[in-house]
Amino acid sequence: SSKIFDTYLSDLDPSRSYLLQSDIEELETYRFKMDNSLRSGNLEPAFHIFNRYQSRVTKRFEQVIAKLEHGLDSFDFTRSEALLIDREQVPWASSETELDDLWRKRLKDAIINLKLTDKDPESIQELLIKRFKNRLNRTQQTNAEDVYQLYMNSFTKTYDPHTQYFSPRTSENFNINMSL
User: What percentage of the chain has pLDDT greater than the value 90?
Assistant: First the structure.
């Protein structure tokens, strides 16, 4: 159960960019209930965890879009900063402020990378807004079948990392792609 819980959280938020330590502490009540819930067909823990994650992602993307819509002038490119890319082993953020700083650095990094391709500030702003709006739309299109697939894959990984559960839609797409 504990492995399923950890794997599910890791699959949802591998870079620890959305959930807070307080979320993890609250969700800890499910740590030793995941297996029994799954055995009895109760998917409430999986959906509760996912709903918390999705609300954090939605809120974060809306904040990022709002920040970008105010322009790129608020970013200080003279300040030397570091951005840790591989965050799997980093502790969960303790506050919204900590995540805000992480996302500010991520945006700054994206802006710098686009500046290096000789894009002007207006097109950078437009491109990043479009990019995050698309991510927000994809997040909001997630359905129960997708959540179930993610949860079942977290379960199967605890026994065999090479086994995956495909939802009917994913299975159909896989079969189409394999027959091409």
Answer: 79
33: tokens are 């209930």
Question: CB–CB of 50/20 below 8 Å?
Answer: no
Rounded CA gap, 79 and 119, in Å?
A: 21
What are the DSSP E strand ranges found in 12-139? Answer: none
Identify which of 124, 112, 100 has the alpha carbon closest to the alpha carbon of residue 20.
Answer: 100
Residue from 127, 131, 138, 154 nearest 49 by CA: 154
Amino acid identity at 54: Q
Secondary structure of 18-47 in HEC code, one letter for each residue: CCEHHHHHHHHHHCCCHHHHHHCCCCHHHH
pLDDT digits (tens, 9 = 90+) for 49-80: 999 999 999 999 999 999 999 999 889 999 99
Which of 67, 70, 47 lies closest to 59 in space, CA to CA? Answer: 67
User: What distance in Å separates the CA atoms of residue 166 and residue 131, rounded to the nearest whole number?
Assistant: 27
Structure tokens at 97: 């402020």
- The gap from C-alpha 35 to its chain's centroid, in whole angstroms, comes to 24
Distance CA 133, CA 64 (A): 9
Three-state DSSP state, 17: coil
Q: Judge if pTM exceeds 0.85.
A: yes
